[in-house]
Amino acid sequence: MTSLTHIDVPKMNENFLGFGLGLRSQHYDYILSNQPTVDWFEILSENYMVDGGKPLYYLDAVAEQYPLVMHGVSMSIGSTDELNWSYLEKLKTLINRVKPRWISDHMCWTSANQINSHDLLPLPYTEDTIEHLVNRIKQVQDYLEQPILLENVSSYLTYRESNTTEWEFLNEITRQSGCLLLLDINNIYVSARNHGFDAKTFINEIDQTSVRQFHLAGHSDFGTHVIDTHDHDVCQSVWDLYDHALDRFGAVSTMIERDDNIPDFPELLAEMEHAKQIANIKGIFLDNHA
Amino acid sequence: MLKKLQHQFLKQILGDKTANMQQRIVNQGELSNDFRVSIYTNAYRMRLKECIETDHEVLGIYLGDALFDQMVEGYISEFPSHHTSLRYFSERLPLFLTQNKPFNEHPIIAELANFERNLLAAFDAADHPVSSQNDLACMAPEHWPSLIFQPHPSIRLFTTDYNSVETWQALKQHINGEQVEIPAATNVKQSIWLLWRNQDRLTEFKSLSPIENEIIQYILNKKSFADICQMLAEFYPAEVLEQNILKHVNMLIDNQLVSLAQ
Ligand SMILES: [Fe+2]
Fold first, then answer.
1. Which of A213, B125, B179, B195 would bridge with B156, disulfide CB 3.0–4.6 Å?
2. A51 vs B123: CB contact, 8 Å cut-off?
3. Which range marks the domain in which residue B241 is found?
4. Mutate: best of B21, B50, B84, partner A, most A CBs <10 A
5. Contact A119 B197 (CB under 8 A)
6. CB of B224 within 8 A of CB of B147?
């Protein structure tokens, strides 16, 4: 694997980790016995909020060999319930164990009335929502003592009360709260198709300095609409959009996110290599940050 | 405003069609508002169903598709998730199965669910070292009476009135492609099972004799080795007491169940 410690990383790009994959339990043994060339892994935080056993054993073993980032689904940052402090406490405990390069969750809400939908539900794009989010993001960042990354979610509906675009909404939140974005290129594509906006406009309008990480994933295309299933290969339209995002944002840590119908490790590695090739053609390498 | 919207949306997701979320969204393109809302309501049920399927694979096979779907629908409606992790969503499934027809007419169903919950609990319980025969040999004789065995945190005791563990094993072999006969549900006698995770992080289980169960109960209650010996002395004739104490201690050590502490 590429060792980050021997690389002269220019200050501007110290957050470019290179090309990674989501860590999935199906691949634990493969990764530890083959030590594949992957620059970093992203873990799903909730999977490791347990007391012990296999999950934490493998987590520690992988953390010894690869840089990690943490990705959660249950912060429910946009919820109108109180912030879930017991969740945040568990998250902080895990942060102390993993020492991730950064942590992320989603720009959405997942729970209300103390009931968890286990889904990434969209927020109305309004001034009130922005104020609500900024206030909560600041509290979380203060408690975790670091900026957090929030990911744009795929959505299937637009609320009547929304009075701005998703990209303006995201920009306003990052500007006011100091949080960063995890841009999921596939989610941009999915939402663009479902709402009829131009995905490139979304990318062109997002503040360049706010993006810290990319997700690339697959979806299910039903013609009239697209569902963000994360169970397919990345499609050509999303690769094209990735190409465009690199032009705008430059060297951004990129990973393939597969949550379902998980193939053998080499297949995901090949997808990651494809992302690397697209970046390399543009002169984006981990080692020289051209 | 936002609070009202979220409560309304959640109400719809939980299955209440009178929440009328389609009134709150914009008409866009070819998809109807009903369809847009249904993407979320369907995803909710699918996700929770998948979670139950993953955690209760054997129970799913035992019930068959129709009964399994009926159970999933009932459980999702009665016990919405209050956890940030799906790992705990099905915690109350055994309770649901003992309270609702037709499942509670066949108590083996709740036992199967309960057994699978216990396996999950042992799987990711806290880590703790266990003692070896070597540690045992190094222990000075004067320390034995005050010794308190520390049970491994993964240890679970599970009582069955039916042959649910045997049924679980047969169904698991069936899932793995083996030709096995699935036993008929019988409640011949009560059995006590011990579940735990060994140091290779594999979950194990074994049936316990009444006296072994008594020993585990003593250990879980932090009783000393002297207390355990006293209990065993009432059970075994004097001439075979020592060999039986040794046998039971070996069982604890060889199965990686305890660590030795003063
Ligand atoms: Fe994503």
1. B195
2. no
3. 129-262
4. B84
5. no
6. yes
Classify residue B66 as exposed, middle or buried by CB count within 10 Å of its CB (0-12, 13-18, 19+): exposed
The reply to whether residue A51 touches residue B124, judged by beta carbons under 8 angstroms, is yes
Closest CA to A142 of A98, A81, A85: A85
Q: What is the CATH number of the domain that holds A222?
A: 3.20.20.150
Q: How do residues A43-97 score in pLDDT, each as one tens digit?
A: 999 999 999 999 999 999 999 999 999 999 999 999 999 999 999 999 999 999 9
Cβ neighbours of B154 in A, within 8 Å: 52-53
How far does residue A72's CA lie from ligand 1's centre (Å)?
10
Q: How many CB atoms lie within 10 A of CB B42?
A: 12
- Strand partners of residue B194: B157, B206
Distance A217 CA to ligand 1 centre (A): 7
Residue in chain A nearest B198 by alpha carbon: A53
| Nearest C-alpha in A relative to B31 | A224
pLDDT in tens, B246-259: 999 999 999 999 99
Q: Give φ, ψ of B36 to 5 degrees.
A: -60, -45
Per the listing, tokens 């001034």 go with A127
Residue A1: the pLDDT is 42
Does the residue B182 lie in any domain? Answer: yes
Alpha helices in A50-181 (DSSP H): 54-65, 85-98, 127-144, 166-177
Domain annotation covers residue B151: yes
Number of domains in chain B: 1
Helix, coil or strand: residue B114: helix
Domain CATH for B219 = 3.90.930.50
Q: Using 50, 70 and 90 to split pLDDT, how confident is the model at A205?
A: very high
- List CB contacts of A175: < 8 A, sequence separation 6 or more: A207, A210
How many distinct structural domains can be found in chain A? 1
Report the alpha-carbon distance of residue A183 to residue A246 in Å, rounded.
12
On the question of a cis peptide bond just before residue B102, with omega within 30 degrees of 0, the verdict is yes
Residue B260 lies in a domain: yes
Q: Is A11 within the bounds of a domain?
A: no
A74 near B CB under 8 A? yes
**CA of B92, closest CA in chain A: separation in Å?**
15
3-state secondary structure of A255: strand
Distances in Å between the Cα of A263 and the Cα atoms of A92, A223, A268, A276 are: 31, 25, 7, 19
Q: pLDDT digit string (tens) for A97-135?
A: 999 999 999 999 999 999 999 999 999 999 999 999 999
Longest Cα separation, chain A: 53
β-pairing, A253-256 vs B203-208, is: unpaired
Q: Which amino acid is at B75?
A: Y
Residue A4's pLDDT is: 43
pLDDT tens digits, residue range B202-214? 999 999 999 999 9
Give me the interface pTM, i.e. the ipTM: 0.91
